[in-house]
């Protein structure tokens, strides 16, 4: 027998799954298994927490916050950065090396993006990945276009610092 809360959680799941998976997959460096595992873990935590504490006012915000923290913890593990370095050390044809280097650059950017404060990461994703114009972002956030441009500039600088602190791009 299902309760109204169960039905609401199912509705939220259906409404947010694609957005959550997109959020997670952009930060996984092309690792589909990791994206699926994190998305599943987030939803397991949501079901448990929401059964005890109730459904939050902004479920997708709750879900992406948990996902961002899980990814941050994942990429902080020492064995993950070692594996990334090992992938670059392999010998192969120049095309394979170029592909590995591009994957490593994308992974570095995505890990650095995951370490940014959520509002800055969202802003960069909305503008650069989702190709939303500043006027749409301004309308969504309640900021002026000029404020969005200033925040984008600060977010880019912070992302650059995060990338530089981890190491040089291949």
Please give a structural write-up.
The protein is mainly alpha-helical and 170 residues long. The chain has two domains: 1-76, Rna Polymerase Sigma Factor, Chain: A, CATH 1.10.1740; 102-170, Winged helix-like DNA-binding domain superfamily/Winged helix DNA-binding domain (Arc Repressor Mutant, subunit A, Orthogonal Bundle). 81% of the residues lie in helices and 0% in strands. The chain contains eight helices and no strands. The termini are far apart.
Which short descriptors sum up this protein?
Arc Repressor Mutant, subunit A; mainly alpha; 170 residues; Rna Polymerase Sigma Factor, Chain: A; 8 helices
Low-confidence stretches: 81-95
Helical proportion, percent range: over 70%
User: Between the first and last Cα atoms, what is the distance in angstroms?
Assistant: 55 Å
Share of β-strand residues: under 5%
- Quaternary arrangement of the chains shown? single chain
Count of discrete alpha- or pi-helical segments spanning 4 or more residues: 8
Instruction: Kindly report the average pLDDT value.
Output: 80
Structural class: mainly alpha
CATH class of the largest domain: Mainly Alpha
CATH topology (fold) name of the largest domain: Rna Polymerase Sigma Factor, Chain: A
Instruction: Count every beta strand, where a strand is a DSSP E run of 2 or more residues.
Output: 0
CATH architecture of the largest domain: Orthogonal Bundle
Number of domains: 2
Radius of gyration from the alpha-carbon trace, in angstroms? 18 Å
Largest sheet: none
From N to C, what is the helix and strand string? HHHHHHHH
Overall shape: it is: globular
